[in-house]
Design goal:
The chain is an alpha/beta fold. 41% of the residues lie in helices and 16% in strands. It is globular and about 55 Å long. The termini are far apart.
Length: 348
């Protein structure tokens, strides 16, 4: 495996070159988890310091960077160029005729023609997008003061212990980073899907403690979302897995985006299985699933291998050990049928 940090100088040069040709009005499209939002905040502070203007968009609930609802909103914004953060990539255009840069760490399914790419995919481990963005900006400006944002965002993907020990040893309080990451992620996991609250909180924060300060109305609102998510996890993790070969499926219904948390809970217990947590209550007529494993297999390759022949679109996105998607119930039914299972297909 290659080390992304070894190529940070070349990547920073690529960002500098992109910005020199991108115009002064940039559209940022980011993921809604802690990694995506923190990477966007780092980028926004850098762009402001360099005299750029920007607009920040994120996908609506259940959408991704390439769904029509997202591309329509992107193309309705008057901007000179587009930077896509932490949303994966495929060979489909998002912003018609606009210079586009992807900064990412997920496994790509190609890129739009002419797009520029800064990716850590293939590194071991692959630094999350917030850590990539921080290192790019630090290389261009020699500033260290945004490290706490990078640590907060990256903690959700690689864990606060790993991030702080390997990248910010002794410089950032671990307890605050862990708490901040959980609160930021609670916004997108909650049934409210309130992404504006963590964005506003990040914009006004100057240190990790600002993200956990309970005198803030935004923090108190995020705590409410966290309580809802925790209650739903406790309820839904009681569902018994259904087994087929080396696959364990945990079907449940919740309005919250907790399939990743359920999958992680069962992955730790079922170490010799590919674990799929399937949420039938997140969006009407769809199944939101997350697949994880400790086995030495790519869950993306696995899902693509059982994809029905008549399904042309990708049905999984993410990392080789942790991925997922939101798919039509009809496609899900075909998938579980190919696994020899029918019980995990529920009608609401």
């Amino acid at each position: 495996m290659n080390d992304f940090n070894e190529s940070i100088s070349n990547s920073a040069t690529k960002l500098k070159q992109f910005l020199s040709e991108a115009g002064r009005n940039i559209l940022i499209l980011s993921h809604v988890d802690a990694d995506g939002l923190c990477s966007a905040e780092i980028l926004k502070r850098f762009l402001t310091s360099q005299g750029f203007s920007f607009t920040h968009l994120y996908p609506l609930k259940g959408a991704n960077a390439f769904t029509p609802s997202t591309t329509e909103r992107v193309n309705a914004v008057s901007a000179d160029s587009l930077i896509v953060l932490d949303l994966g990539a495929m060979d489909k255009e998002i912003a018609k005729g606009k210079p586009t840069l992807f900064i990412d760490h997920h496994r790509p399914f190609g890129y739009p023609e002419g797009a520029k790419v800064i990716s850590s995919y293939g590194s071991d481990p692959a630094p999350p997008t917030s850590l990539i963005t921080f290192n790019l900006i630090r290389h261009l400006t020699s500033k260290e003061d945004l490290g706490w944002l990078a640590a907060t965002g990256a903690a959700g993907d690689l864990g606060s212990d790993f991030i702080l020990e390997n990248y910010f040893a002794g410089r950032i309080p671990k307890s605050q980073i862990r708490e901040a990451e959980i609160l930021l992620n609670s916004a997108k996991r909650s049934s409210h899907y309130d992404i504006d609250t963590p964005i506003s909180l990040l914009e006004g924060a100057s240190k990790p403690g600002d993200l956990t300060d309970t005198s803030s109305e935004a923090v108190r609102r995020l705590q409410t979302y966290r309580a809802e998510v925790n209650a739903e996890v406790r309820r839904c993790r009681r569902e018994a897995p259904l087994f087929s070969w080396k696959v364990a499926i945990i079907p449940f219904e919740s309005p919250c985006d907790i399939q990743g948390l359920i999958a992680e809970t069962w992955r730790r217990q079922l170490k010799k299985y590919v674990v799929i947590a399937a949420n039938f209550g997140f969006l009407k007529d769809k199944v939101a699933y997350v697949i994880r494993t400790q086995l030495d297999v790519s869950v993306i390759d696995f899902m693509e291998s059982i994809k029905p022949p008549d399904v042309k679109e990708h049905i999984v996105f993410g990392h080789d050990r942790a991925a997922g998607a939101i798919i039509e119930k009809e496609i899900w039914a075909k998938l579980v049928d190919r696994l020899g299972l029918r019980k995990p297909f529920r009608e609401r």
